[in-house]
Design a protein that fits this description.
alpha/beta, globular, three-stranded mixed beta sheet
Length: 490
């Protein structure tokens, strides 16, 4: 395969064009990525389950649809699925020993939607256990590595999805974001990723971490590719009580709209102590680029930004402790051997199957919900959550979007926070607030720091994903950060 064709294949739109011109078949496209996964992924550990045979069968069906003239825009496009979306007949592990033997008996709504669009699932991507982590080091299947530097983390919890896309193992991937788990890995791996408005993408069949915060979204090299995939993932689902009934627009229709007159806010709160100097400079340069495109910069403030981390790490563990109570060794999942009684069964099954970070958050969540502490911790966190949402409401009275860094610094080395994992929580300082407010947010490549990717974060009003994708696309039309690729050994 020529280098030009291979380069075209690492984006959804590039592969789409080749399929439409019949320059390649869906089967050939799928085999290309399967072989790349086999050759490159042993060094990255970004894929938990490779579904080569199933993928080829789906690709054959996609080629048949194209031959009959029944193909849609995504028919035959391969993707990797974060391993917390249920897939009928295929292991859905959530990166945990608890679900290592769990084969889902049904498909998640997102899985159904992508299959209905004719997409080809290459396999399941690695992730932090039950999506709890910022580095993809808590996975039962081992840490995933950043293709830009394999001694560094890819970010979490959707690190496998991000690393695989960055390394060209799939043109696009699904992901989820509870406190930054799409945007942080996108920033660390130099790709694009969007967390839509809470409720925009169905959570049915998406194994829960924190139900009021979790949201699925796409990862890809470009905003245009994200627009295509998000359009296929989004939509109302009567099986999800939190699903929004608002119609889904064609996110690709407004990508080329000019930015003249758009007002973007740059909160001074983002540029406090702890922000890497090279990251800060990259964000300033990106802001200047938006101004060159006709956008107007406005200074805004988010007074309760610093409270987002303690607020998040009360609410999210509280919800996790409730959601993970179902994993008891009785109904499904891991079961300890030779239990003495029901108490021993539940105690040992949970102790043996959950990793340290999951246990830490279950204990934290149980504590903040306990009698005597509920009002002092959980109740107060809910009150601060409202204040954080009000800060955004106030800011959006004068601006259309908010711009800032995705992470305080570039990807950090593996085991950096092994001795003090609580310090890792601060990597979510710029991302968690959007989840608490339920707002759409995305990260796009915007520079390098110490030779590693820097992410520019865009936060929008509720249900304003189209505007974020438009701004990101226009930025990518005049910059080349999204075109840069890591140097791989293969």
């Amino acid at each position: 395969m020529s280098d030009m064709k291979e380069r075209a294949l690492d984006t959804l739109t590039g592969a789409q064009a080749l399929l439409e011109k019949k320059a390649i078949s869906a089967v050939e496209l799928t085999r290309h990525f399967v072989e790349r996964i086999k050759a490159i992924d042993p060094e990255l550990n970004s894929v938990i389950t490779l579904c080569a045979e199933e993928a080829i069968a789906q690709a054959e069906q996609a080629d048949a649809r194209r031959a009959r003239g029944e193909a849609g825009p995504l028919t035959g496009i391969p993707f990797l699925h974060k391993d917390l979306f249920c897939t009928r007949g295929i292991r859905t592990s959530c990166g945990s020993r608890m679900l290592d033997n769990f084969v889902a008996p049904y498909d998640a709504t997102v899985t159904e939607k992508l299959a209905g669009a004719g997409m080809v699932m290459l396999g399941k991507a690695n992730m932090d256990e039950f999506a709890m982590g910022s580095s993809n080091e808590t996975s039962f299947y081992g840490a995933c590595r950043n293709p830009w530097d394999v001694t560094r983390v890819p970010g979490g919890s959707s690190g496998g999805s991000a690393a695989a896309v960055a390394a060209g193992l799939a043109p696009v991937a699904t992901a989820t974001d509870t406190g930054g788990s799409i945007r942080l890995p996108a920033a660390f791996c130099g790709i694009s990723g969007i967390k839509p408005t809470y409720g925009r993408v169905s959570r049915y069949g998406m194994i829960a971490f924190a139900s009021s915060l979790d949201q699925g979204g796409p990862m890809a090299h470009t905003a245009e590719d994200c627009a295509h995939l998000l359009g296929a993932m989004a939509g109302f689902d009567m099986r999800d009580a939190t699903s929004l009934e608002d119609p889904v627009p064609d996110y690709t229709a407004t990508l080329d709209a000019p930015l003249t007159g758009l007002k973007f806010g740059v909160p001074k709160d983002f540029f406090a102590e702890g922000l890497d100097e090279e990251v800060a400079q990259a964000i300033e340069t990106a802001s200047a680029q938006l101004e060159a495109l006709g956008a107007i910069r406005v200074e805004v403030t988010l007074p309760h930004l610093r409270a987002s981390i303690p607020t998040y790490y009360v609410i999210a563990p509280a919800e996790a402790s409730s959601n993970l109570a179902r994993y008891d060794g009785v109904r499904f999942g891991y079961r300890c051997s030779d239990p003495q009684d029901i108490t021993d069964l539940i105690t040992r099954s949970r102790s043996e199957a959950f990793g340290e970070e999951v246990k830490r958050r279950i204990l934290t969540g149980t504590f903040v919900l306990s009698a005597g502490y509920y009002d002092a911790y959980y109740g107060r966190a809910l009150a601060v959550r409202k204040l954080i949402a009000q800060d955004f409401d106030t800011a959006f009275e004068s601006v259309d979007i908010i711009v800032g860094p995705t992470a305080p610094g570039p990807a950090f080395a593996l085991d950096t926070f092994a001795e003090d994992p609580v310090k890792m929580y601060l990597t979510d300082i710029f991302t968690a607030s959007a989840n608490l407010a339920g707002l759409p947010a995305m990260s796009i490549p915007a520079g390098l720091a110490a030779g590693l990717p820097v992410g520019l974060q865009l936060i929008g009003r509720r249900l304003d994903e189209a505007r974020l994708l438009n701004v990101a696309h226009q930025f990518q039309q005049t910059t080349d950060w999204h075109l840069k690729r890591p140097e791989l050994s293969q």
